[in-house]
Design a protein that fits this description.
single chain, mainly alpha, 90% helix
Length: 128
């Protein structure tokens, strides 16, 4: 409906009311204002909705805090286990390297001993 037609309709309604006698208009009872349905109920509904939202939010925050606490408590244990595994692997590799070095040292020592014996045998053969 355009503004012109609504203005025309309003003027028509006013002209109809002017034709009615004033006593008739005064004798009419007004429809009582239903404050419970128009103001109180929407306010109560909104208040209940806010309370439900706050309860849900509090539950979500509590769950988040508990999850974060569980994560933060488990994290050092997990990191300690992971670090311990890494250190054990490094120690094992160091022990293997030491063992290999010891074997190499032993073979070198045996080689030097054989060379000394060979030199002694050669020098013993050369002396009359």
């Amino acid at each position: 409906m355009s503004a012109t037609s609504s203005t025309t309709a309003l003027q028509h309604d006013m002209s109809v009311q002017r034709k009615r006698p004033i006593s008739e208009m005064l004798s009419e009872t007004f429809v009582p204002f239903d404050h419970a349905a128009k103001v109180v109920a929407p306010f109560d509904n909104e208040t209940k909705r806010d309370a439900e939202f706050l309860e849900k939010l509090n539950t979500m925050l509590l769950e988040l805090i508990l999850d974060f606490h569980a994560w933060s408590a488990a994290r050092p244990t997990h990191e300690s286990d992971k670090t311990a595994d890494t250190l054990e692997k490094e120690i094992k590799s160091l022990r293997e390297a030491e063992k290999e070095q010891e074997q190499t040292r032993q073979r070198l020592n045996d080689f030097i001993t054989r060379i000394k014996l060979a030199l002694a045998a050669l020098t013993a053969l050369g002396t009359p």
